[in-house]
Design goal:
11 strands; 32% strand; 7-stranded antiparallel β-sheet; 170 residues; globular; alpha+beta; 4-stranded mixed β-sheet
C-alpha cells in the first residue's frame, strides 16, 4: 500500500513538473511557438517545418491574402498567414503549453491563477463556453483561450488583431 502511494505520488510530481515547464520547442508564446515566430514568411516557416507545410493555391484561400495551413506532423496545430507572413498559431492538442504551463484540458481556474489580468472578453451562450483574451504588455500580441465545459479546448497566439478574429481568415 505504501509503495503504491509512493509510486503514484512520484509519477504525479513528474507529470506536474513536465506540464509546468514546457520545453522551448513546445512552448506557446505571445509571438510564436518553439522556433516559429509571428512575422516569419511562409518560406521561413516551411524551412523550419520541412515537408509539413505546403503553399495554398490562391483559389483555395479564404481571402486573397489570408490562408491557413496545418503542419502534417503536428496534428492539432494550424498556422494562419496573411500576405504570406505568419500572424497566428492555433493549437487544439495538449502537446503544447504556454510558458506559464497552461494547456489544452486545463480549467478556467488554472487560467485565473496564472493570468490574474485575464479579462473575460466574450461570453458565448452558456457560462461554460468562454473566450478569454490576454494582450501582451506591448499590445502587439495576444493569447486567446477558448473553453468548452470550463476546460481550455483551444489556444490562439499571435498578432492581437489576428487573434481577435473568431474564424481566422475572413
Amino acid at each position: 500500500m505504501v509503495i503504491k502511494h509512493l509510486i503514484f505520488g512520484t509519477s504525479m510530481v513528474a507529470a506536474t513538473i513536465c506540464f509546468a515547464n514546457p520545453s522551448p520547442a513546445d512552448q506557446i508564446r505571445f509571438d510564436g511557438l518553439g522556433d516559429l515566430k509571428v512575422g516569419q514568411s511562409f518560406s521561413e516557416v516551411s524551412k523550419l517545418l520541412p515537408n509539413e507545410v505546403f503553399p495554398v493555391a490562391s483559389k483555395l484561400r479564404a481571402s486573397s491574402d489570408c490562408y491557413h495551413v496545418s503542419p502534417v506532423k503536428h496534428p492539432g496545430m494550424t498556422l494562419m498567414f496573411k500576405k504570406d507572413h505568419l500572424v497566428r498559431i492555433d493549437v487544439t492538442q495538449p502537446l503544447f503549453r504556454t510558458s506559464s504551463g497552461l494547456g489544452i484540458g486545463d480549467d478556467f481556474n488554472a487560467l485565473k491563477l496564472r493570468y490574474h489580468e485575464a479579462v473575460l472578453q466574450q461570453q458565448n451562450g452558456a457560462p461554460e463556453q468562454k473566450q478569454v483574451t490576454i494582450v501582451s504588455p506591448d499590445k502587439l500580441y495576444a493569447f486567446r483561450f477558448t473553453f468548452d465545459q470550463s476546460r481550455i479546448d483551444s489556444i490562439s497566439a499571435g498578432q492581437a488583431d489576428a487573434v481577435a478574429l473568431d474564424e481566422g481568415c475572413y
